[in-house]
């Protein structure tokens, strides 16, 4: 079995999905090879010959290797200005390479001016003309070599982001041209979202042999003829530890659960798609982290859970993983306890990402967030006292919100600015299969039959243009908030934010 993570995604940590699949296959006695074609493909593009035309581009190309080395050095992160310049220079090289192919490329995204990942016809065209893809000079010889070396009985692709879709289909199309009988299976987050739409009808049956929604371990084993189930196998990152990811050391991505244990928030894709919550036993999580620490020697653990459960956080305080870590958490009463947060810090917690969404209690209640702003205030204070950084996520434009409630969010963040380390500002998109959409005047947001979101007539007139104006002219310019916005790592955002906390900067 050959498992591939295709371009393009942030190249700072290995793909967790194919590592988990590899662990399942190996536990069942199946041979497999895993390939992070994302980091390989990006490295190939960055080293592509190019004639820069402007001063910035010439400097960026000249210092490329030096900047790439620096991004793998923890000392580089002690000076934010140098880091920012280095990231933007590396990104400039990628932008210029993409521009020469009619693409908008950066370290976190891939946009083709001619083809859309939201249109079935365009994805099929990408598969039909793989040689037109910018990564083709990389993946053609790479896939040919992998097929010769491994002689796989099946090839699997992990498609999680829209930025990967066009290249995934180009790679699938190439495989089908040279080995039409070789079965291809595609799974991952994006495939899951498409397949969980009640209106889904598979338009790729003539190209892709199998599509997999949700966790793919058991489904993949079944496709390979394995009848016995493997209970929650440990992921295997062994083949990925030698890759030169753009981070100061190996980041270990790890999922202790899938779905969300709250799973009640209105308009949430997890709720709309009906993704069930399943969690590994804490004892297994702690054991796997110990084993993976020995295997990968990570500098940081990135918990991928939608929200780390309070019980797991308590377990981590009792048996620290011995490696700094961060992840998403709900603002619950345990995090309002300064002593618990102190123990959490001692366990290695550098940063917690908090999905606050709004600083207005009425909006939170309308979204069924299940959190109280007074409690959130105590959580922020307790985390600050403990020295744990916060990455706070805000969502503007939900149906119940107006500029009045958005102003309350501004006031709330300004009031707590000393306890808010980083901010993520997003404008609300309505999931296409959200049950709440039936009460609103909905219309197409993105052109394409595979769009995940729909636009709607805001019942309070709080449209996207007004929201953007508010964010740019008022929210971001508030003197207490501007410094928070400015310290966010460019392009890598939360994936690099932990490296600017006390553990790394001090």
Question: Quick gist of this model?
Answer:
With 506 residues, this protein is of the alpha/beta class. Helices cover 41% and strands 15% of the residues. The chain has 21 helices and 18 strands.
Task: Walk me through this protein's architecture.
With 506 residues, the chain is of the alpha/beta class. It folds into two domains: 2-50 and 100-223, Rossmann fold; 250-505, pyruvate-formate lyase- activating enzyme, CATH 3.80.30.20. Helices cover 41% and strands 15% of the residues. A six-stranded parallel β-sheet has the order 8-11-12-13-14-15. Helix 8 links the parallel strand 5 (155-158) and strand 6. The longest helix is centred in the N-terminal third of the chain and has 20 residues, at 80-99. The two termini are 45 Å apart. The relative contact order is 0.11.
What topology does this entry show?
Blueprint (H helix, E strand, L loop, with lengths): L1 E4 L10 H12 L5 E4 H10 L8 H8 L1 H7 L9 H20 L3 E4 L2 E4 L7 H9 L7 H15 L4 E4 L3 H17 L5 E4 L1 H7 L14 E2 L5 H7 L27 E4 L2 E2 L10 H4 L5 E2 L2 H15 L3 E4 L6 H9 L6 E5 L8 H9 L2 E9 L3 H6 L6 H14 L2 E8 L6 H13 L6 E6 L2 E2 L10 E3 L8 E4 L7 H12 L6 H5 L7 H4 L4 H4 L1
Parallel strand pairs: 1-2, 1-5, 5-6, 6-7, 8-11, 11-12, 12-13, 13-14, 14-15
Antiparallel strand pairs: 3-4, 9-10, 16-18, 17-18
Helix pairs in contact: 1-10, 3-5, 4-5, 6-8, 7-8, 13-14, 14-16
């Amino acid at each position: 079995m050959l498992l591939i993570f295709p371009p393009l995604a942030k190249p700072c940590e290995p793909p967790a999905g194919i590592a988990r699949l590899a662990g399942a296959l190996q536990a069942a006695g199946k041979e497999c090879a895993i390939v992070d074609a994302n980091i390989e493909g990006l490295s190939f593009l960055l080293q592509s010959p190019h004639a820069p035309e402007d001063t910035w581009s010439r400097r960026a190309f000249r210092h490329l290797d030096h900047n790439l080395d620096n991004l793998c050095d923890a000392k580089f992160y002690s000076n934010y200005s140098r880091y920012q310049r280095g990231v933007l220079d590396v990104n400039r090289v990628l932008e210029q390479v993409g521009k020469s192919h009619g693409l908008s490329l950066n370290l976190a995204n891939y946009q083709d001016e001619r083809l859309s990942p939201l249109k079935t016809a365009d994805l099929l065209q990408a598969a039909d003309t793989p040689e037109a893809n910018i990564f083709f000079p990389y993946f053609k010889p790479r896939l040919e070599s992998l097929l010769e070396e491994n002689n796989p009985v099946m090839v699997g692709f992990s498609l999680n982001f829209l930025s990967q879709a066009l290249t995934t289909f180009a790679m699938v199309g190439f495989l089908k041209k040279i080995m039409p009988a070789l079965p291809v299976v595609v799974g991952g987050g994006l495939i899951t979202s498409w397949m969980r739409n009640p209106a889904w009808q598979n338009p790729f049956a003539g190209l892709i042999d199998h599509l997999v929604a949700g966790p793919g371990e058991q489904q993949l084993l079944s496709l390979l003829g394995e009848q016995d189930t493997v209970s929650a196998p440990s992921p295997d990152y062994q083949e990925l530890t030698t890759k030169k990811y753009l981070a100061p050391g190996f980041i270990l991505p790890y999922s202790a659960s899938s779905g969300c244990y709250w799973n009640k928030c209105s308009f949430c894709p997890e709720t709309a798609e009906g993704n069930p919550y399943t969690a590994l036993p804490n004892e297994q999580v702690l054991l796997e982290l110990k084993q993976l620490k020995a295997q990968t020697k990570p500098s940081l653990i990135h918990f991928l859970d939608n929200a780390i459960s309070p019980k797991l956080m308590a377990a981590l305080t009792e048996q620290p993983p011995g490696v700094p870590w961060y992840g998403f958490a709900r603002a619950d009463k345990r995090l309002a306890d300064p002593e618990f947060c102190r123990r959490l810090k001692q366990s290695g917690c550098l940063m917690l990402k908090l999905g606050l969404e709004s600083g207005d209690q009425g909006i939170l209640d309308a979204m069924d967030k299940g959190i109280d702003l007074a409690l959130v205030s105590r959580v922020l204070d307790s985390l600050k006292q403990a020295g744990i950084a916060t990455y706070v996520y805000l969502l503007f434009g939900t149906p119940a919100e107006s500029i009045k409630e958005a102003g309350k969010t501004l006031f709330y963040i300004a009031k707590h600015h000393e306890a808010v380390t980083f901010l993520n500002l997003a404008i609300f998109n309505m999931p296409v299969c959200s049950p709440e959409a039936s009460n609103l005047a909905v219309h197409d947001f993105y052109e394409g039959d595979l769009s995940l979101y729909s636009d709607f007539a805001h019942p309070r007139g709080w449209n996207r243009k007004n929201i953007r104006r508010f964010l740019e002219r008022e929210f971001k310019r508030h003197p207490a908030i501007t410094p928070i916005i400015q310290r966010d790592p460019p392009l890598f955002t939360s994936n690099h934010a932990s490296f600017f906390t006390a553990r790394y900067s001090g």
